[in-house]
Amino acid sequence: MTRVRKLHIKSYGCQMNVYDANRMADTLAPIGFVETGMADQADLIILNTCHIREKAAEKVYSELGRMRKIKESAALEERRVVVAVAGCVAQAEGEEIIRRAPVVDLVFGPQNYHRLPDLLNEASRAGKVVDTEFPLEDKFEHLAPPSRRAIQARGVSAFVTVQEGCDKFCTFCVVPYTRGAEISRPVARIVTEVERLADGGVREVTLIGQNVNAYHGEGPDGSPWTLGLLLHRLADVSGIARLRYTTSHPRDVDDALIAAHRDLPALMPQLHLPVQSGSDRILAAMNRRHTRADYLRAIGRFRAARADMAFSADFIVGFPGETEEDFRATLALLDEVGYAGAYSFKYSPRPGTPAAEMAEQVPEPIKGERLARLQAAIDIHQADFNAQCVGRKLDVLLERPGRHPGQLVGRSPYLQPVQVVAPAGLIGEITTVTVTGTGANSLFGTLGPAMPDHGSMMQTAVGV
Ligand code: 5AD
Ligand code: SF4
């Protein structure tokens, strides 16, 4: 019989890492690993890392200090703990990690997690193992589909990787180096996975990929399908009520994607479309290969297809050479689009990327000051967007218990968290909620009034 061992995975960064962590757990389950939330009880600890900005990468090393203590106290009890570093820091830094943090036994990149059982065997024989090759074999496809239990544990909303890697080479970004060239999963495999998720009670699927709308997976007819076609196919899967996808690139917005937003009620009217800067000069230096006008045209096409589309974006401030005038163009773009929310970052030079070598690096205090101004502007837009929802009836997919007893939290079509008094039995249902107020990052609402009797009865039932 396989000996039960405990596995602790800590993920940093993007949704892709969360998905990969689930897949690592699936890969290790057949050889006897069960997950634990407590690092100090684990036999195998995996830090699934992010290299996108310096801060994200440095967190790994401070966490490894903690892992060293855990490993030392386990050794006193004659228990061996294997410490592994996975993800993009592993890919970018390889052996350097073991040099800097000797506590680490195993380093493997995002392309290699499916080889984990073999790598663990090698580590127990050889001591230290580093595997950051880009293999030819397909890392997704040898895996059995996730078990029903694993799916249920993940709730009513699930992520499915459809595409990985990026060929865009924005001059600030490590992703093309750490995640490699763009690859797409075949349509049939994605459909099977989504059908299984639906069987397990999942109602909403978010398709993920570093450059998801560059999707070009093999269709059932042998020809490459676009993301738009894939979304049409997935909208037919019984039980799936909502579809989303992230993250998109403005250059890869095509007619099929626009048509999907026009034709598919299941496709939510919300899009994360990073722009990074509102200045054409900076966009060119970033090698974004789109202008401000191209971006605004893309936004216009989505809005023409679906009038209530809500947008979010990523912005970088203090890219090399960014002047106050360039930065103001970014602030102006924010107003022009009227985002529902956005993420903003100080430019962080990443070793090996072209922008890290550029002259005219922007001093830290200026980056800090611009970030504060941009974040303040984003907050105003987000608050405006949320305030406009008050008094409206929104369809909310109820996902899990809320902060207070009797409350559930769900998501609006626009991805806002919504807190509502409702019985736990409604988890997994899409319910009409009247929005009554806004909080810092969420909306508050009451059930109905689509079904007033039903709604008030439920509210009473929660009270007892
Ligand atoms: N510095 C700052 N932000 C970055 N991002 C990517 N690389 C960097 C970098 N070197 C941001 C971009 C991207 C998001 C995921 O992270 O805005 O869209
Ligand atoms: Fe990085 Fe996105 Fe640019 Fe690709 S498109 S290089 S992932 S910022």
Can you tell me about this structure?
With 464 residues, the chain is α/β, with parallel strands linked by helices. It folds into 4 domains: 127 residues, Rossmann fold (3-Layer(aba) Sandwich), CATH 3.40.50.12160; 124 residues, 2-Layer Sandwich (Transcription Regulator spoIIAA); 114 residues, Transcription Regulator spoIIAA (2-Layer Sandwich), CATH 3.30.750.200; 69 residues, Nucleic acid-binding proteins (OB fold (Dihydrolipoamide Acetyltransferase, E2P)), CATH 2.40.50.140. It has 15 helices and 19 strands. The strands form 5 sheets. Strands 2-1-3-4-5-6 form a 6-stranded parallel β-sheet, sandwiched between helices. A 5-stranded mixed β-barrel has the order 15-16-17-19-18. Helix 13 runs parallel beside helix 14. The longest helix has 26 residues. The chain is globular, with a radius of gyration of 23 Å. The C terminus is likely disordered. Iron/sulfur cluster (SF4) binds next to helix 7. 5'-deoxyadenosine (5AD) binds next to strand 13.
